[in-house]
Amino acid sequence: GDSVTQMEGPVTLSEEAFLTINCTYTATGYPSLFWYVQYPGEGLQLLLKATKADDKGSNKGFEATYRKETTSFHLEKGSVQVSDSAVYFCALTLNQGGKLIFGQGTELSVKP
Amino acid sequence: DAGVIQSPRHEVTEMGQEVTLRCKPISGHNSLFWYRQTMMRGLELLIYFNNNVPIDDSGMPEDRFSAKMPNASFSTLKIQPSEPRDSAVYFCASSLGGRAPRETQYFGPGTRLLVL
Fold it and tell me: Fewest Cβ atoms nearer than 10 Å: which of A37, A65, A66, A108?
């Protein structure tokens, strides 16, 4: 079935370090791909998305490129801040307007 | 603009009691989703509606769970009777529906349910 696999956390980095969170997917069709972020005690917020192969989503210094050949959508940021500490979820949808399938989430902790 | 509104934010109840969670989607959104988040199972979709009609309820765990959307601005998720294993954070999300970029889902703050 359709699924999303993320690298396991927690990931602990020092401020200004480079971040990569790996995400790969399995899908029967051509999904749209998303990264959502969840800050402590809050709901999920859309961070970025890409709807077709080779699209790059970007927001707040985060980037991810839709790689169809490797079925991946890795999240990157060049210089993380303490305020980026959160849980990051990779997700896909196959049915426009339909359900999201989430990865298990990766907890990021950034230390000053 | 107000985002997705959920109530209550926290609920503590005893096993066997009925629990009702409420959601008000963003005005103008056509699709509404109920998710459950637990440490063991992560985030899973329970049910979603499009134009107030349930489209996919395959994630509803069992008959104890039911969801309704009587109009475009209100939905409920009911658990009767509740069990300790229902303890989780329940999120409601809404979207404009349809093709990208309309498909982006906006999440509410969640209801943290504890069943003793």
Answer: A65
